[in-house]
Amino acid sequence: MKIEYRKATLDEAQRICYIVQHTKAEIYPDYYTKAVVDFFGRLHSIDNIVKDIKAGRISVLIKDGKIIGTGSHTDNHITRVYVLPEFQGQGCGSRIMDELEKEIFSKYDYCELDASLPACIFYENRGFKTVKHIKYDIGNGTFMIYEIMRKEKMIRKMQPNEYHLLDDFLYQAIYQPDKTKLAPKSIIKNPELQIYIKDFGKQKDDYCFCAEVDNRIVGAVWVRNINGYGGIDDNTVEFAVSVFDEYQKMGIGTALTKRMLEHLKGLNYSKVSLSVQKENYAVKMYQKVGFEIVDENEQEFIMIHRLQNYCKRR
Question: In terms of CB atoms within 10 Å, which end of the chain has fewer, N or C?
Answer without folding.
Answer: N
